[in-house]
């Protein structure tokens, strides 16, 4: 008797997923609750597990888009776990050499079958490209060729055919590679693209700029970084200062922390700060809940935890849902100035940039200071110019006098 394994519900707003990778191969024996495949939605990656032990029969291919409830595979009763060689080892009449050779032979047989074998989706791509599977090195389980391997594979150039025309009339070859490859957009990338276009079309987005002298914060970090890390177990970074400054400024300018809902404006007495993080599969925005009530150490610990989950594709939908204000740091990539796009349905986003030592006028003297440009993009439908500029000036004041963040003044 076989059991069908279907795409489970993974979120209230998610109607389909992509089968990104098979962890187990067709015909392979699987244990109950063993991970057999990975599913990817527009927000996160999920693991599909076996609901009983048996032989796996694959129905869907890697790269397929599946609706919630669609059949992914089935598990047939019977089969046996690959431990036969170990069970025969204790037999008294088996020669020692045979016992030693048995698991090796079994491994070689398995490797020769799996290594270099393309998945159904990978095989189709290789066929379209005219690439021999034997020339592709697989990175999947047991050397299996994945869809990504197939996409990255390049067909060898037909050098002999290119030289066939007469040398005198042959056009000069173009130097360098001119290969092209097409990749299907991931659910996450498609969702990000749709949302960014919608924000540009549906909001009255403007951006205001200012600059911050980062020397006071850098001096404070240099003075207390060792004691801070020894006491709290985390480093003292810039993100905690910016988060606290945003929370304090939002008290004076609540519209920046609000959103439009139909014909109403929803004001929040809390600040859930979304932190834009660059993950392997695209930009994700996990949330620091109730950041206004956190200490600098608590914020730093939460940022590290969320960033680690983002890099490992382990963020849950709940950790990325909601948020009342967003902070993005393009400075880590070297950006000097940019106009960040609002993270709808929020009404504002703060952009941090790189720190550059520049000459500025201070007390009627020209001095060199570590300066950062900051940008606030906002929805002009809900936030007026006075509020946007006032909010950014308040953030600047708090960062240039970090004692205010600790005293709440």
What do you see in this structure?
- This protein is of the alpha+beta class.
- The chain folds into three domains: 2-81, OB fold (Dihydrolipoamide Acetyltransferase, E2P), CATH 2.40.50; 120-157, Dihydrolipoamide Transferase (Irregular), CATH 4.10.320.10; 187-407, Chloramphenicol Acetyltransferase (2-Layer Sandwich).
- It is built from eleven helices and 19 strands.
- It has helices at residues 84-88, 96-114, 120-129, 147-152, 159-162, 187-202, 215-232, 238-252, 296-311, 385-400, 403-407, and strands spanning 2-6, 16-22, 29-30, 35-40, 45-49, 54-58, 65-67, 71-76, 205-213, 259-261, 264-266, 273-275, 277-279, 282-284, 287-288, 325-329, 348-352, 355-362, 365-379.
- The chain is elongated, with a radius of gyration of 28 Å.
- Residues 84-113 have low confidence and may be disordered.
In terms of quaternary structure, what is this? single chain
Tell me the distance between the termini. Answer: 70 Å
User: Total number of β-strand segments?
Assistant: 19
Secondary structure tally, helices: 11
Structural class, judged by helices and strands?
alpha+beta
Mind telling me the CATH class of the largest domain?
Alpha Beta
Q: In percent terms, what proportion of residues is strand?
A: 15-25%
Order of helices and strands: EEEEEEEEHHHHHHEHHEEEEEEHEEEEHH
Major beta sheet summary:
7 strands, mixed
**Average predicted confidence as pLDDT:** 83
Radius of gyration: 28 Å
Low-confidence stretches: 84-113
- Please, what is the CATH homologous superfamily of the largest domain? Chloramphenicol acetyltransferase-like domain
Based on Cα principal axes, name the global outline. elongated
CATH topology of the largest domain: Chloramphenicol Acetyltransferase
CATH-scheme architecture of the largest domain: 2-Layer Sandwich
In percent, how helical is the residue content? 25-40%
